[in-house]
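Teaching note: in complex prediction, the entire set of molecules is handled at once rather than each chain in isolation. The prompt given to students was simply: 'Predict the structure of this complex.' The entities are:
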Amino acid sequence: MSAQSFPPPIDLAIIGGTGVYAFPGLRNTQRHEVATRWGQPSSAIVTGEAAGKRIAFLARHGERHTIAPHRINYRANIDALHELGVRRIVGVNAVGGIRHDIGPRVLAIPDQLIDYTAGRISSFCDADGEPVLHIEFGEPYSDALRRGLLDAAKRAGVAVVAGGCYGATQGPRLETRAEIARLRRDGCDLVGMTGMPEAALARERGMDYACIAVVANWAAGCGPDPDAPISLDEIHAHLAAASGQVPVIVRELLAG
Ligand code: HPA
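The expected output is the structure of the full assembly:
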């Protein structure tokens, strides 16, 4: 009987957000078009090797950023990764900073979230007659994966804010100042549009999930000049500058 060679298991998946459409320097890449019961994921999933491990990459908004936050098929994305054998995911999310020390270009590894999204399909429990899951979600992110990222950032010499509460808004518009003031009163430190339902779906599938939040701008009415309008050019410049640290942290996590 001839020996059959299976690819090694996937150690980690990255779901890239705004400004992160590929994982740089991946070797021996393969593209996977994965169809799921829920439809097509946002993009082909690219697998390849980094730091001696096999990883998967998925572009959340599509490879040319054509899918708005509320139009993303979060279920297809999570299930496609699950079908490829992924069991832990790092979601990279562009955010606005609310807390005084979470300004543009800061990276944060949040430990809590509040979901303000509306009308998104947010569960795999979708058919009568199938078991209903009431996942435990008091700690929405995997503690082990969060700690792994924090340790990796430290070893790599990349500054990150440890902890913080991510407010997930519906978008695609940015928020009003009153909305951000409310999020601040609620205890949110950062605001983004894609953190949910991704985190909950990963938990429903039994996968470890953590978030690297990349701060693109001060949220509305925040920062040293609360009257300054938020410019898209500024957002893209900050993301381009700060996102480069993400693969540095991930490579260190894989190597560690
Ligand atoms: N609000 C919500 N999502 C975001 C922001 C913001 O200010 N910046 C980047 N993603």
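Point out the following to students. The first helix runs from residue 74 to 83. Residues 94-96, 169, 174-175, 191-193, 216-217, 219 surround hypoxanthine (CB under 6 Å).
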